[in-house]
Every structure is written in C-alpha cells, then in structure tokens.
Amino acid sequence: MTKLKIAVQKSGRLSEKSIQLLRECGISLPNGDRKLRMEAGNFPIEVLFLRDDDIPQYVEQGVADVGILGENEVWEKDKQVVIVEKLGFAGCRLSLAIPKDEVYSGPAYFQGKRVATSYPRILQKYFEEQQVHATIEEIGGSVEIAPGIGLADGIFDIVSTGSTLLMNGLKEVEVVVKSEAVLIGRPDLEADKQHILDKILFRIKAVRNSAENKYILLNAPNNVIPHISRILPGMKSPTVLPLVEPGWSSIHSVVREDEFWDVIDELKNLGAQGILVIPIEKMVL
Ligand code: ATP
Ligand code: MG
Predict the structure, then answer these.
(1) Handedness of CA 128, 130, 134, 137 (dihedral sign)
(2) Given the DSSP bridges, would you call strands 248-256 and 239-242 parallel, antiparallel or unpaired?
(3) Which residue's C-alpha comes closest to atom 20 of ligand 1?
(4) Can you give the C-alpha Rg of the chain in angstroms?
(5) Cα(203)–Cα(84) distance, rounded to whole angstroms?
(6) Residue 158 CA: which ligand is closest?
(7) b/e string for 250-276 if b means 16 or more Cβ within 10 A?
(8) Phi/psi of residue 86, each to 5°?
(9) DSSP state for residue 14 in the 8-state scheme
(10) Structural domains in the chain, sorted by start
C-alpha cells in the first residue's frame, strides 16, 4: 500500500509540535524512542526524523514526500519544493542586530560592515535589494556572540522574544522576514500520495480552526437577538433556544479567539448574561 513519507525535525524546537499536530489529526504514532522512521498505526504515513536543514533537500529528491519545518530554512535552502500549508506555530523573525550603543541610521549602516549569520542567502538577497555592500560571515550557530568576540559588526539571526540579543548586548534594528512552521511538498506528487496529503490537510485545517475559535453560549433578552446575531454570526448563523423564563433566549455561536474580548464587551452592553466560552476540539467548515 502507498504511504506518504513525512519528514519532521528529529530533535529541536519543531519536533514535539510537529508530532503533536499529526496526533491531533488522529494519526496514531508510537511513543518512546524516536528511531529514524516510524509508521502510523491507523493511517498510511511513515514519519522520518531528520535535521531540519536537510528536509528541503530530501523532499526535493523524493526521500520524503512532504516535510514540516520553519519557512526560514525553506527560503535559505531554496530547493525545488512548494509551501503547501502554513501551520501557525514556531513563529519568529529573521532580524539584523547590532551592539546596543551603536547609532543606527537605516540599512545603509551595514555598508562595508561584516555581518555574521547562519542564513547567508536570505541576507544576501536583502542586502542586494537595499543596495548595501557588506561582508557576510557564515557561521553554524551561536551567532549572537560574534560581535562580542570581534568576528563581526552585526548579526542576522532568528529572534522571537529578543532576550538572547539583550543578554549579548545587542539590539534588533531591522526585521527582514517573518517565519512560521510550514508543510512543504514536492511540486509533482503522485496522485495516490496527493490523495493521502489532501486528507491530512483537511484534518490540519480542522485542528487549526478549532484552535482559533471558541464555542460561546449566553443568555439574552429576546429583543437584542438580531443585534447579537450580527456580532456573533458563527459558522452559518447562531442557534437560538428559548429559556423557560419568558422573554429570554439562550444563544449559541462560535467566536474567533482574537476577537473574543471586544465581543464580550459589546454583548454585556446589550444585556447578555451567563456567558460561557468553551474550547472546540475540531471544527470542519
Ligand atoms: P537541527 O538540529 O534540526 O538542525 P536547529 O538547531 O537548526 O535544529 P532549532 O533551534 O530547533 O533548529 O529551530 C528550528 C526552527 O524553529 C527554526 O528554523 C525556526 O523556524 C524555529 N525557531 C527557532 N528559534 C525559534 C524561537 N526562538 N522562537 C520560535 N521559533 C524558533
Ligand atoms: Mg537546523
């Protein structure tokens, strides 16, 4: 039987979340020791555990059919792969940083300077766009110590909270690109493998929708139901059930997590009471 080979990071920031995503999609994977490969018990996939740097190349060559990794690695490696779906975790940015006491004047600051990075291609492209001539020092890791030891004048690296920069006496001066975890694939996947991938994508979307939305229940006087229906349109329209108390109804709907607090204020102003907000496990639109 055809299996879809999916590459995930063996150990690192993406590993657990990648496996968790597959499990939330109902794919059962054995616990315990992570070997190089693992087969799902109830779904035609095989998981390969690799270094994230190698995933674009393996997908291009067909060793794996799809892979989960940070967009930053996809851009840097620049292989013949396509981004199939953004996954919404491992958000970070690739930024330029310089010693904190330096005065920053804009990208031209880097003219003639040396910049250390593990992402030379992305940085080169940025400097070309900005018409900046700088020397790029490619190093494998611990980029943030480069200015302190005299290896470079600045760095170009992954930033999430900025605390690593701060600890090394650096300040972020330019956000070049934003990145998140993505699912990549070969552009010419065979039909039977594409069919398996489509099933996984359908499930991934259901999981992501559920994470971004909440189920909301509340009681409200009947005269404000039309107004509340406009605020809480839900998936099609809200459900309205009569309460035993005359003139009142229970309204059920779905609300986006990021709009939740604004909506609550409006609902309270309209006289809504007993508002309950409940997580959704899966959501199919
Ligand atoms: P490997 O051994 O597989 O090569 P690595 O050391 O290159 O691992 P990690 O540090 O585990 O990689 O990071 C993997 C990915 O997670 C990065 O490419 C990036 O997309 C994302 N990432 C890295 N650092 C952060 C961070 N601080 N916050 C959020 N996401 C991050
Ligand atoms: Mg890596």
Answers:
(1) negative
(2) antiparallel
(3) 70
(4) 24
(5) 14
(6) 1
(7) ebbbbbeeeeeeebbeebeebebeeee
(8) -85, 145
(9) T
(10) 4-89+181-189 (3.40.190.10), 92-179 (3.40.190.10), 213-279 (3.30.70.120)
Residue 248 has which token pair? 């009142």
**What residues does 171 pair with on adjacent strands?**
98
pLDDT category of residue 35 using cuts at 50, 70 and 90: confident
Residue 1 reports pLDDT greater than 90: no
Read off φ and ψ for residue 125, nearest 5 degrees.
-60, -45
The DSSP symbol for 144 reads G
Beta carbons of 8 and 90 less than 8 angstroms apart? no
Sequence-distant contacts of 75-79: CB under 8 A, at least 24 apart: 75/121, 75/122, 75/177, 75/179, 76/119, 76/120, 76/121, 76/122, 77/53, 78/121
Q: Report the residue among 92, 94, 175 best suited for mutation to probe ligand 1: largest number of ligand atoms under 8 A from its CB.
A: 92
Please report which helix (H) or strand (E) contains residue 190, including its range.
none
What is the DSSP pairing of strand 170-179 with strand 92-99? Answer: antiparallel
What confidence tens digit (pLDDT) does each residue in 145-159 have?
Answer: 999 999 999 999 999
pLDDT > 80? residue 243? yes
Taking the chain, what is the end-to-end CA distance rounded to the nearest angstrom?
A: 30
Ligand 2 centroid – CA 50 distance (Å): 9
Cβ-in-10-Å burial (0-12, 13-18, 19+) of 13 comes to middle
